[in-house]
């Protein structure tokens, strides 16, 4: 009985904080999390599907992970940490008689930080090893080209919302007919300076007014 009361007491001390997506996703609210102090929220990972942000049914297989790096008042702000496709969706893409080509490549956007990107290309038919190598080479080339002109946030958006995969598709299909190109996974290896400070911002006390 005493342990139950103790548990209830701990929950009574907790406060709910509103969690926001990264600035690149307009810092929209993505949920609420409890904590008995804002410091305990720092570095906590929040997982959502892209569908929860866009309400686009085609985005259901895209899983996003954000990490809380700043707490201000009752609001917790996040930075992008990882994106990954669900296993069931990936299995549905690869059909018998086709080839699955995965390219893993590290890129550094214009404002710093470092991303490890995995691109999945699925061919219309089974292709040769030399053609797979060529497709991986053009994929790495296109990823590098975009890293020279896009900052960290914009690069991630271009991956998540498909403009970079579409560009890879256009160039790689000249080597061999493709059925699909998707971003299999994005992982942050290092954040740019603007996201490195992990902090709780204390509210500025209101000065007492004199009568």
Plain-language structure description:
The chain has 211 residues and is of the alpha+beta class. The chain has two domains: 14-84, no CATH class; 86-194, Tetrahydropterin Synthase, Chain A. Helix content is 29%, strand content 35%. Strands 1, 2, 3, 4, 5, 6, 7, 8 and 9 form a nine-stranded mixed β-sheet that branches. β1 (15-20) and β2 (29-35) form a beta hairpin. It starts with a helix and ends in a 10-residue tail after the last strand. The relative contact order is 0.16. The model has no long low-confidence stretch (mean pLDDT 92).
Number of helices: 6
CATH first level of the largest domain: which class? Alpha Beta
**Poorly predicted residue ranges:** none
Cα radius of gyration in angstroms: 22 Å
Mass-distribution shape:
elongated
Largest sheet, strands/sense/barrel: 9 strands, mixed
Average per-residue pLDDT, rounded, comes to: 92
The assigned CATH architecture of the largest domain is 2-Layer Sandwich
Number of spatially distinct domains? 2
Given the helix and strand composition, which structural class is it?
A: alpha+beta
Could you tell me the CATH topology label of the largest domain. Answer: Tetrahydropterin Synthase, Chain A
Beginning-to-end CA distance, first to last residue: 52 Å
Beta-strand percentage range: 35-45%
Give the number of DSSP strands.
Answer: 9
């Amino acid at each position: 009985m005493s342990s139950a009361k103790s548990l209830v007491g701990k929950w009574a001390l907790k406060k709910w904080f509103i969690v926001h997506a990264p600035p690149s996703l307009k810092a929209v609210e993505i949920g609420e999390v409890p904590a008995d102090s804002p410091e305990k929220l720092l570095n906590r990972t929040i997982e959502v599907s892209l569908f929860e942000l866009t309400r686009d049914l085609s985005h259901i297989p895209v899983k996003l992970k954000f990490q809380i790096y700043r707490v201000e008042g009752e609001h917790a702000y996040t930075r992008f940490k990882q994106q990954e496709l669900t296993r069931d969706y990936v299995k549905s893409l690869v059909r018998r008689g086709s080839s699955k080509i995965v390219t893993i490549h590290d890129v550094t956007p214009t404002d710093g930080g470092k991303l490890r990107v995995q691109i999945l290309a699925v061919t219309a038919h089974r292709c040769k090893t030399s053609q797979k190598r060529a497709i991986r080479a053009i994929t790495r080339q296109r990823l590098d080209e975009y890293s020279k002109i896009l900052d960290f946030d914009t690069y991630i958006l271009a991956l998540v919302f498909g403009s970079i995969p579409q560009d890879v598709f256009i160039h790689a299909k000249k080597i061999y007919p493709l059925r699909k190109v998707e971003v299999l996974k994005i992982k942050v290896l290092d954040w740019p300076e603007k996201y490195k400070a992990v902090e709780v911002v204390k509210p500025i006390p209101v000065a007492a007014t004199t009568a």
